[in-house]
Amino acid sequence: MKKIILSMVFVFASITMVNANSNVEIVENINSNNSVEYARDCVDKAIAATEAIAVCFGEDIRGENQDYYLSVYLDLYEGCMM
């Protein structure tokens, strides 16, 4: 139960940080037509946040909980791309 609550805190904190900065990045990228770089930034942020959550639990994102960490990554990535 502790793992679930802690992971949700990290997910919400990460989404909040991503959403706070996303509007500025979207405007900058639309103006410069660098949507590929913006998508890459979202991938990097989502991977880093997912790995940080796994490290907090002493797990590997490619271990036995791979499906869980993949869903966390996808949620973070989709939140960033909005």
Your description of this structure?
The protein is mainly alpha-helical and 82 residues long. Helices cover 84% and strands 0% of the residues. It is built from three helices and no strands. Helix 1 runs antiparallel to helix 2 (35-56) and helix 1 runs parallel beside helix 3. The longest helix has 31 residues, at 2-32. The protein starts with a helix and ends with a helix.
- Oligomeric state as shown: single chain
Query: Quick one: how many beta strands?
Result: 0
Gap between N and C termini: 30 Å
- Tell me the fraction of residues in β-strands, as a range: under 5%
Largest sheet: none
Write a concise keyword list for the protein shown above.
mainly alpha; single chain; 82 residues; 3 helices
